[in-house]
Prior knowledge:
11 strands
Amino acid sequence: QVQLVESGGGLVQAGGSLRLSCAASGRTSSSLTMAWFRQAPGKEREFVAAIRWDGVITSYADSVKGRFTISRDNAKNMVYLQMNSLKPEDTAVYYCAADPTVTYWGWARPYEYDFWGQGTQVTVSS
């Protein structure tokens, strides 16, 4: 089992920045693919970004490309999401996800991930 705990959410004005963190514990492995998803009220959970186990390959949703950056520190079992130029439409609960076997083609699919955090709220005011 892998436990994931997100932190760093909060209230920010449009145009501002936040950095989310996700701490992994338990049967962690540097071979885990790590990802961020988000879910706004009344909407389905949507893919934000993912990063391969070695940090070499990343993927982003078109809506955040150029504004968000995912990174990881395997020595600390941490993954981060730097969010810049935030917009009101970025408001959502942000979830960290992990899986040891998901392939690149499945990165954007929530059901491909076995392990999830409890989420952290991000609110962007206009």
